[in-house]
Amino acid sequence: xxxxxxxxxxxxxxxxxxxxxxxxxxxxxxxxxxxxxxxxxxxxxxxxxxxxxxxxxxxxxxxxxxxxxxxxxxxxxxxxxxxxxxxxxxxxxxxxxxxxxxxxxxxxxxxxxxxxxxxxxxxxxxxxxxxxxxxxxxxxxxxxxxxxxxxxxxxxxxxxxxxxxxxxxxxxxxxxxxxxxxxxxxxxxxxxxxxxxxxxxxxxxxxxxxxxxxxxxxxxxxxxxxxxxxxxxxxxxxxxxxxxxxxxxxxxxxxxxxxxxxxxxxxxxxxxxxxxxxxxxxxxxxxxxxxxxxxxxxxxxxxxxxxxxxxxxxxxxxxxxxxxxxxxxxxxxxxxxxxxxxxxxxxxxxxxxxxxxxxxxxxxxxxxxxxxxxxxxxxxxxxxxxxxxxxxxxxxxxxxxxxxxxxxxxxxxxxxxxxxxxxxxxxxxxxxxxxxxxxxxxxxxxxxxxxxxxxxxxxxxxxxxxxxxxxxxxxxxxxxxxxxxxxxxxxxxxxxxxxxxxxxxxxxxxxxxxxxxxxxxxxxxxxxxxxxxxxxxxxxxxxxxxxxxxxxxxxxxxxxxxxxxxxxxx
Length: 570
Prior knowledge:
alpha+beta, Arc Repressor Mutant, subunit A, six-stranded antiparallel β-sheet, 27 strands, 22% strand
């Protein structure tokens, strides 16, 4: 239903009476009277998909939990609702590769791809979940049963659609609501433990019990923490900021005086906060409300010495003799436990909450024209289609060796046969190019003239794209310039390919740079999303992108202010 992103209207809160009716319908349809909505506030909006229209219901955090078609009676829970309530739907099991290669492309689940046994509730017309047999409790897709599945004792050689798909994890519904949720890690099956105990196998059942119980306790703790972080009290925010100030004054080796108030807050206080959501913990959310009041409070307490008037303040001195600072116990502000402040601490606080591993890019090459003939004459598999530079280099060396093309007097020189000659000199108009060339100079023109480059980005060992993208890896572009009226802004674009959401980036830069942000599009063709922040913040933005795992070499920074200064000084 959502193979393409649906068009949705603005969300509105559902009336309590309507929410109760909806809950009653959900319970009646699923047969689960214990089911309840994840939040007290339920929102709704209309959607228009490629082939249907209907209504989506979300929780208070705008995460879709149920949806229905306008002219249909069935309510469909999303995979997110199924994760919150295991057992909400009867589940059809399938193989892991079927989930990834078929269902994630929007294909229906065929009978031959299912795994026995079937839940007796899986009758035609029943809404069901689909999960991998390796993680049977983690629903990855939702659909409607098309066959009387419990009647089948075997699916080998059988044909027909078992489940018609209506929703799956990475579909348009997830994208349009910007849900970036990872499937939960399935816990040990408690039912298996109980059965084992009843059968008298207490000794063998103790081992799963010892593994499952701590895991469940840990999950509950994490949930409790998440609930607390969603609603900080005013005194909690004040305490976080106070501890960040203590940390800055005692542990931050990058603090240099004098320093402006805005730089002190954005580059030190915010970076030295514990691992909390900066949207919930910042000066604006505190009892001080303003940076000037925050700093003047600690000047009055004897921690800081300030200069300036009104909101234009500069920190010119600190007092490390305060008992609170001498007795301060530092805490971890990043994954490595470092206490250097500045850039290292920002890696934790300004990146995703679980930290972001360094991204890496792999370049692959697809042969065209004569290169396909070259592949056929090597040990490379023609079915692979894409090859790494090292694979092609090894194949070239093997080809040279098997055809005795190396110069007998100097092995570093190669005599090009007709195939290699045309591959290397394909784009040269000079037909008198030498046949005897250095071995080291062959691979570069060979790749440039006869292969189309592709790239794949990896986050850890996980690829960002399902298939490698054609072309070379584009750079994120950052431009600092002066607009009309001598207003300095910094623009960031071409970040979408790294799966960076423009709304999240704008919110983070608004906090990190202490400046207003806007979201728009570039003036180029094709157009790209662009985030603009007030002020000259190129280095700060690069630091933030580094914290997301993006290397500096993938970022192109153009500071047009420096160019103007040089031109004016001549």
